[in-house]
Amino acid sequence: MSQPLLQPIHKETSLMKPTLLALLLGTTLAAQAAEAPTYQGLGADSVSAATLEKFRAKALPAELSRKVQSVLDLRAPGAGILSPDGQSLYFGWRVTGSAQVWRIDGPQRFPVQMTGGEDATNVLDITPDGQWLLLSRDRKGEENPGLYLQPAKGGALTAIQHLPGVQTFFEFVSDDGRYVYYRSNDEVRDSYTFYRYDIPAAKKEKLFERKGYWSIIDHRADGSLLLQKAASNVAAEIWAWSPSTREFSAVIGQGEAEEHDVRFGSQPGEFFVQTNKLGDVRRLYRMVGGKLSAITPEGKWDVAGFALDKPKQKLYYSVNEAGYTKSYALDARTLKPLKLPAFPGADHVSIAGGTRDGQRIIIGVETATAPRSNYVLDWKSGKLTQWVLPSTPEIDTRQFAVASLESYPTRDGAQIPMFVRRPAQCNPAPCPIVVHFHGGPEAQSDAGFSPYAQLFVDAGFIYVEPNVRGSDGYGKAWLNSDNGAKRLDVVSDIEDAAIYMKRAWAKDGVVPKIGVMGGSYGGYSTLFAMTRYAGAYDAGVATVGMSSLLTFLENTAPYRRALRVAEYGDPVKDREALIKLSPISYIEQLKDPLLIIQGASDPRVPVGEAVQMYEAAQKRGVAAELILFADEGHGAAKRENQVASIGHTLRFFQTYLQR
């Protein structure tokens, strides 16, 4: 027998007596949960170099590699940040194979590359005098970014802070341009301390430290700060704090399991609040004296986000209408609507930011058949100018399949929305199907431009993206329907998708073959589909997915653990539910081909989750494959690894689903 890829750590796996556990979960499942070895550790150091070498991605067939490469060249730069005078735009782009920062000095000018190398680098802000850029840089997908300064005209980076194993997050630049505010878990790994960095003096000062996942969400010219304390991935408390007086006061959300996003208003004592506290959907409110007054109309769709310009003269917000984005503008004082340009046929219109004086804003526009285009709107002149052009080399994207919004029924009568892209024809019929479950789990699949989906459509697959219960965008009840042990009641949405498609999309009595895939929580959904619902899908590709919710919670990064417990359940209190919700608990049912893809440096889902699932599948004699990226984290960021991940996913499904 081969040696295990990770050294097992044998420990007690249940706080309950086996007899009671057996009654709750069934004798076989309980025995597996009690006896299965687990692992310990996080990051690339938790797996041997020999294992990383053994499971490195193999070379793709040349033609398949070329197809994936061509699809990756269909891209648009990031929305970006305008210089204070509005004459330059700084944005992120992956042209070099990794995320780097670029500058363009005027509409549709030739871009200048500002940063380089293999480490992913992003632009965060620019100082009010236009002299310095604030940049974030991460290594190997570890999600332990550093914070840097760079001259706005280009040049070497100066580190404000970049420490191994430590997260350093930018908050804001003071209005006088002297101070950079940031937070870091350099003192305690599961909590954040606030600092202020003096640019001229090149010195830092500690401002604030309290237990919890804190961040700064707004500030005033007088130095007062608006702080958010996250209670879960969505719920948060909001506090006001003054660095000068040290006064700390509650604003909203204390002791509540509700969503709150807040900004200082344009008037003293006024706040703008986005929350679903008073209904099923998120709305935007004006709050004075603790009283909320609705700004946006009552409806069935969430306000997806909002922002004020820096002078707090204009209020922008977007609405998520069933996976399509519409944006609006209001006068921040009178709350009267302001007219934005119309973009007929757009799937998504979003406001990305603007100049500090509020005169110019960036508008991103995306359709089903073209990458996002970025425009700059000048409020003073009313002029709309396209600044950055998307790239579509050698491919006519006008021929891309447009996603149709459909639904499928569940066993308990719910209707699950899904976006479906179909090939023009299938030979032979029926087309095989690939079902892609999104991550999060609070994320949402939406409409718009998707070269990734088109790659599968071009290969002859129907590409389906469901928004199962627990997805964002459909109200609070839908979003919270899978929290904790409640997930047991709705996780069958995964199987019901396959049941419906086999029945409704069969042709002449021939049932289509169906594959399942996803990343992160979508990877977990894939593993659950292939084990607990074995036989529903004919092949699966799980990327950075959890195979055991227990070992995941025990080994994930400390800063994430508390937030994920609120979503999945407590390892002690909800232990039985977590065992029942873990794909590896049903490993004896696994029978169909499975490909597992994982980054070794992943701080969210430990590499051990992939290794233990692969080893268990091997023992079952299942056709299983494992790909480990030694230099990646929670998903592939480098181009060569993206090509390998996408290419092997497509290869795997072509092997096992196409007749």
UniProtKB/TrEMBL annotation:
Query: Residue ranges of the Peptidase S9 prolyl oligopeptidase catalytic domain?
Result: 449-658
Q: Which GO terms describe its molecular function?
A: aminopeptidase activity; serine-type endopeptidase activity
Alphabetically ordered keywords of this record: Aminopeptidase, Hydrolase, Protease, Serine protease, Signal
* One Pfam family here: PD40
Signal peptide start and end residues? 1-33
From its record, what is one biological process in GO terms? proteolysis
Keyword flag Protease: yes
Cite the PANTHER family for this sequence: DIPEPTIDYL PEPTIDASE FAMILY MEMBER 6 (PTHR42776:SF27), SERINE PEPTIDASE S9 FAMILY MEMBER (PTHR42776)
- The name on file for this protein is Dipeptidyl aminopeptidase/acylaminoacyl peptidase
What species does this protein belong to?
Chitinimonas taiwanensis DSM 18899
